Amino acid sequence: MRILNSTFSSFKNRSQSKGFTLIEVLVAFIVLTVGLLGTVALQSNAKQASYDANQRSAALALANDIVERIRANDTADIVANYSKTFSYLDTPVEKKCLNTRCSSSEIAEYDLYQWNKALRVSDNTGALANGTVCISPTADGDGVNLRVVVAWQGRQKIAESSASKAVTCGTIANRKTVVLDSYIFMRSA
Known about the structure:
By secondary structure, this protein is an alpha+beta fold. It has one domain. It has a 4-stranded antiparallel beta sheet. Helix 2 runs antiparallel to helix 4. The model has no long low-confidence stretch (mean pLDDT 80).
C-alpha cells in the first residue's frame, strides 16, 4: 500500500473544512459576550447591595446616636420632649445649646436639630436617602420604653416581610427600615 503525500491530497481535506474556524470564532464570541454581560449584571447588583448596606449602617448609627442622646437627657420629660416623627423634607429649626445653659427640653430640641441635620442627605449634611424617623417613647414604671424607627429608600427592590410591613414609619417606595427598641431607666430626682 502506498501513501500519497502530494499537495493535492492535503488540498482536498482543506476544502472540506473551509469556514469551520469562522463558526468556532463566532461561537466563542457569543460565549464571551454572554459571560461579560453576566459580569456587568453581577457588578451592578453588587453596587446596589453595597449602597443599601452603607445606608443600613448609617441608619443604625443614627438610631444608636439618638438613643444615646436621650439616655444622656433622662429627665421626666423624655416622652414629651422626644416623641417626634420627621422626615428629610422637614427643615430643622436651629437650636444652639453649646455655650449656654439649657433646660432638658432645650437640650432635646438641640439633639433633634443635630439629628435631623444628620438625616438630611439632600443638602449634603446627612447620610440617608429620603429618610423618615419615628421616635416613640412610652413611660413604664421606673423608666421609658423607647422605639426608634429609621426608614429610608433603598435601591434594591426586595419584598418586605410581614414584620417590616407592620412598622408604620415612612411610605417610600423600596422602603428599608431599622427598628431599635431600648429601655431607659429614669434618674431619681
